[in-house]
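Quick check before the chapter quiz. The format below is the same one you will see on the exam, so make sure you can read both the input and the output lines.
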Amino acid sequence: MKSKYYKFRNFNDYMAEKYSLKKDVVSTTELAINNLLGYFGEKNKNGVKYEELINKLRNNEENYKLPNPYFSIIFLDGDKMGEWISGKKSPDLLTRLQQSIPSKDIDAKKIYEDFCKDKNINLNVLKRSSITPSYHKAVTRTLDHFSSFIKSVVEYEFNGLLIYSGGDDVLAFVPAINALKCANKIRQIYSGNGRVEVIKDDKKYVFRDETCYLTENGNEIPLFPMMGKKATMSCGIAIVNHKFPLYDALDIARKAEKRAKKNDRKSFAVSLVKHSGQQEEITLKWEIEGNDVLDVSEDIWNEIKKDKMSRKLLYMLLDEKILDELDVDEYINYYFPYILNRRTIPNKEKDSRIYKKYIDKFNTIFKESRNDKKLLIQFLKTISIFEFTQRGVK
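Here is the expected output.
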């Protein structure tokens, strides 16, 4: 006699149908299929609607292959958390007292120095870190708030699977197409900067100015502080084929996280393992000269797509021989426009606008890093990661 579960592939499928429960276990293949989510109504290059293709893939229909067979493993970890807990990174008493004075026209430091001198108080006392039980409670409470938002970001915004979120640690599996954006958003929530939005329990929250705000009726109501701009995270990302051994993929992601830590922290590191076995690695700071590296990289790739340029453009930009011969200025101001001219329809007015648009975006990162060729190469590879993770999707 057949079990009543026989038509289901596993018990999670049975529970999902019988009790309308969301499946807790998502396969790596399902994560790769989720690369196509968000493109409903659009068609792939073969004229098949994405929602139809998703159903065919989930039903294991023959003659249908995954357009994008990659998923990602993301490790995030707060930097120097031991120093935050011990109080080494906490503001000193003098800084806290200065913050309590609302007017910027008043020299708070001079006032306190005169006060200490008048009362015969050692000024060094005010330079000590303020470590109290309330300080530790505040750090713990902030980390709890941070962790409470991660499931909404990973699973409901980026169609992934949250494995672990506790304190300053996060482990998540995410479709490859969302890997870089998901990691970047989580670290912005951690510090409370970047003005990112999160929908949680049908409520909209905004993270900016080191604070979490609840949005209601067009107003932003401050709720609680986040860790602050001085608190950073390191991140390791492995992007692998859905059939790649999971144990090895986890190991690659952990090693990527260690590379980010060795890069003086506040960095992200990506290891892309192609199905052929070829591995590509990048390691960069989240921000360079005040600019979000991933935001600028994604913006450039989106502009390349919008201008309908060939993907071969990126291979030409990463020509090792050219990169060896040219300095950063020559590359951005001469070689880059030359390649753009070769990949677009000749139109002087149009090309002029395109050149300026791209060069301006490059210069936001390289305003002061004109001699850092290693940074240029890593930045170009980041753009190529965005290109690779979006293959198979319109």
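If your answer matched, good. The CA atoms of residues 42 and 48 lie 8 Å apart.
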